[in-house]
């Protein structure tokens, strides 16, 4: 039995930056700082980011508003 994917789990850098509403350069910096893990199947290959890690990043960086 095959299942139909409704959305991809792995995003390339550009799509991941759009998902987070960040510039690709800001996202690269977060990766270099170790704040977001990436998958890279070979040296020089594209960065792939797991949507679950992106969602976790959002949750960890939410802030309440103090008025």
Name of the CATH class: Mainly Alpha
Main sheet: strand order: 1-2
What's the structural domain tally?
1
**Average of pLDDT:** 91
Could you tell me the CATH topology label. Arc Repressor Mutant, subunit A
User: Structural class, from secondary structure content?
Assistant: mainly alpha
Protein model, in words:
With 67 residues, this protein is mainly α. It has one domain: Orthogonal Bundle (Arc Repressor Mutant, subunit A). Helices cover 40% and strands 9% of the residues. The protein is built from three helices and two strands. The protein has helices spanning 13-20, 24-32, 51-60; strands spanning 10-12, 48-50. It has a two-stranded antiparallel ribbon. Helix 1 crosses helix 2.
């Amino acid at each position: 039995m095959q299942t139909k994917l409704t959305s991809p789990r792995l995003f390339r850098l550009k799509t991941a930056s759009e998902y987070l509403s960040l510039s690709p350069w800001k996202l690269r910096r977060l990766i270099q700082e170790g704040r977001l893990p990436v998958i890279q199947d070979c040296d020089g290959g594209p960065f792939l980011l797991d949507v679950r890690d992106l969602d976790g990043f959002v949750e960890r960086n939410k802030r309440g508003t103090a008025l």
